[in-house]
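Data deposition worksheet. Section B asks for the primary sequence of the deposited chain exactly as it was used as input, without tags or linkers unless they were present during the calculation. Section C holds the resulting structure in token form. Section D is free text for depositor observations; keep each observation to a single sentence. Incomplete worksheets are returned to the depositor.
Section A, Depositor: J.P.
Section B:
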Amino acid sequence: MRRDPLDYLSSELQALRDQGLFRRLRVLDGEQKARTSIDHHVVVNLSSNNYLGLTTHPRLRERALDAIQRLGVGSGSVRTIAGTMAIHMELERRLAAFKRTEAAVVFQSGFTANAGTVASILGRDDVIISDELNHASIIDGARLSRATIKVFPHRDVAAARQIVEGLPRGQRKLLITDGVFSMDGDLGALPALCDLAEEFGCIMMVDDAHASGVFGEHGRGMVDHFGLHGRVDVQVGTLSKAVGVLGGYVAGSRALIEFLYHRARPFLFSTSHPPAVAAACLAALDVLESEPELIARLWANTRFFKAGLTGMGFDTGASESPITPVIVGDAALAMRLSDRLFEKGVFAQGIGFPTVPRGKARVRTIVTATHSREELEFALDAFKAVGAELGII
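Section C:
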């Protein structure tokens, strides 16, 4: 009988169980909403990236259904062969206008947008200077590029400067940061990094995944939030968080986008978005520009929920965004906190290593524009009861 060559994975899984890190996938029974059913259990949902509630917005539903009726359910090809539809080009034009750049290109996901861009615009003779907490897609793209990777401590611009000062002036350099860091909710040091990039001729890049639709006028992101238009060469965003649909995009100069059309491997070798996805994204941009009250509600809910958690004595770290971690340190304790909250009707997923460093395990919460005050009060009451029960507060 043939021995299973993957048998070692069972031991790895048992190690996760022993550390309290093994997690079964929770299953959403219905729509992605502020209060929903997960594993047949009605809960207040504090683990979704659906910041503005657009996953169920009537205008997005209507546009998606219309696109299916007119254009079918799939594109049938990669963009460079027969898969570029007029609706894809319309979406890219709208995104460029929204981000106030010359051009934009849409990728199948935010992950491929980051990884594909970094890997395609740099090579083995180049250098990447990256914040230590940048997203995994940036890390993978940097590795694929074969460029030298230099990592600076989180938000430490002085350390980034030391790295850049030690590099040859003529060497191509990419300086990159998240706009909003997805596990801590704090902001990248973008203004100071832009100054550094301009002083030393670096390419400046920001991953705006958790800022798109959340920061800046009408949700234009961190470049708009900080007033840095024209100073960031590569802006990466997502269409699957606040925009509520699926995909990622890169915005920048026409030359950058044309180059990505020719060299970004995820763009070249993946089938393009179904028409319904592109149509729903277009509708989302309409909503962002015409319903600013959604972002206002998001921030009002964020301020209320943060104040409630910190008032009870929970450690919410350095969060400056709707991402609010409840940091407990021990991984097993974080998972117990998550499980007990679920039993009380609140879904807030536990996060441990390797997503966050060892000793920094947490429950990560995100409020949305569509949470009611009553739902947030219910969630805070659950946190208070479970936090006291587990000795966290």
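Section D:
The first helix runs from residue 8 to 18.
The chain has two domains: 14-45+292-389, 58-290.
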